[in-house]
Design goal:
CATH topology: Pnp Oxidase, Chain A
Distance between the termini: 58 Å
Oligomer: single chain
Helix content: 10-25%
CATH superfamily: Electron Transport, Fmn-binding Protein, Chain A
Number of domains: 1
CATH architecture: Roll
Radius of gyration: 17 Å
Structural class: mainly beta
Number of helices: 3
Order of helices and strands: EEEEEHEHHEEEEEEEE
Number of strands: 14
Shape: globular
Length: 194
């Protein structure tokens, strides 16, 4: 299978998350792994790049992340939406979601966590210990980042006509919307001063 993944300069890693798509979090520890959907993920800092994700303390993913100190953060596509809904609707303590959904993975470069095929951006994250964790927030430094060249290059998203390659946003009840077309504008002129 041809790989379209290319490294993204870590100083530009947060640009991959700026448009607010649903994300998938992969985790592993002591021979056990899990994947979950997470709509609450955002960039936090540029240098070094940091992200914040919300992972409920009662989940298997949270247990694995706390035990290992690392996790994978991925941006799924519209073409992967059925799997995104399935991993978000089933608890990892009940089933092995990777096996049950026949999810294709590849090894991360700098952490020991499976990364998912069917996505267009991947972040390898190392947890930063912080008091925010008691509020289900996980702060992490991005230690490696890569994106699919078919939709991301020159530090910009460029979604084309293949709608299955667009990232998506989750609303509720199995409803998603896809990332739309881009457009550019110049800033309005500023007149006067305050």
């Amino acid at each position: 299978m041809q790989s379209f993944r290319q490294p993204v300069d870590l100083t530009r890693a947060t640009r991959l998350l700026n448009h607010g798509p649903v994300t998938l979090i992969t985790s592993a520890h002591a021979g056990r792994s899990n994947v979950m959907a997470a709509s609450w993920a955002m960039p936090l800092d540029f240098t070094p790049p940091k992200v914040v994700v919300v992972i409920d303390a009662k989940t298997l993913t949270r247990q694995l992340v706390e035990a290992s100190g690392v996790f994978g953060l991925q941006l799924p596509t519209r073409g992967f939406a059925r799997h995104t809904l399935a991993v978000g609707s089933n608890a990892g303590v009940e089933i092995d979601k990777f096996a049950a959904l026949q999810l294709a993975t590849f090894p991360a470069e700098k952490i020991d966590v499976p990364m998912l095929e069917g996505c267009v951006a991947w972040f390898e994250c190392k947890v930063i210990p912080d008091d925010a964790q008691r509020h289900d927030l996980i702060l992490a430094e991005v230690v490696a980042c890569y994106a699919d060249t078919r939709v991301y290059s020159d530090n910009r998203w460029h979604f084309g006509d293949d709608h299955d390659m667009r990232t998506c946003h989750y609303v509720a009840g199995g409803t998603f919307f896809e990332t739309g077309d881009t457009f550019e504008v110049e800033a309005a002129p500023v007149s006067g001063t305050r």
